[in-house]
């Protein structure tokens, strides 16, 4: 009976003591960087990269919204210019037509620059 009790005690210790020791092992050391010290926190780099991506995405969305608004205005100005030209005749060139054409030109250059991006 005694060996039987000793076997159960040994089994009990093996079941509960060994897994506890395995869970409390120290984490393995991080590999050293080029300078011989531990590398900068990967989590901080990941967070910074994610923040940079989010800012770039927001900037791109804002740029896209401005492009849409400017192209809508460009279309409106082009339609107005066409109306002015249709109303004028071959002998009369209205100052309003020239002003509209200059405004369209400036806006078109602005749209072109915005399409190129922040470079």
Summary keywords:
119 residues; mainly alpha; rod-shaped
Fraction in helix: over 70%
Would you tell me the overall average pLDDT?
76
Number of helices: 3
Give the termini distance in whole angstroms. 85 Å
Total strand segments: 0
The low-pLDDT segments are: 17-22
Helix and strand sequence: HHH
Portion of residues in beta strands equals: under 5%
Morphology call: rod-shaped
| Main structural class | mainly alpha
Query: Largest beta sheet, briefly?
Result: none
Radius of gyration: 37 Å
Report on this model:
This protein is mainly α. The chain has a domain at 48-119. Helices cover 76% and strands 0% of the residues. The longest helix is centred in the middle third of the chain and has 46 residues, at 42-87.
Produce a short descriptive summary.
The chain has a domain at 48-119.
Topology:
Blueprint: H1 2-23, H2 42-87, H3 95-116
């Amino acid at each position: 009976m005694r060996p039987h009790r000793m076997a159960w005690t040994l089994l009990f210790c093996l079941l509960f003591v060994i897994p506890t020791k395995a869970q409390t092992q120290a984490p393995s050391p991080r590999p050293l960087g080029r300078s011989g010290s531990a590398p900068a926190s990967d989590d901080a780099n990941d967070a910074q990269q994610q923040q940079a991506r989010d800012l770039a995405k927001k900037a791109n969305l804002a740029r896209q919204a401005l492009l849409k608004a400017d192209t809508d205005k460009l279309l409106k100005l082009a339609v107005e210019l066409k109306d002015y030209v249709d109303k004028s005749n071959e002998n009369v060139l209205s100052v309003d037509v020239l002003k509209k054409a200059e405004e369209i030109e400036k806006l078109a250059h602005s749209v072109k620059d915005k399409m190129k991006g922040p470079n």
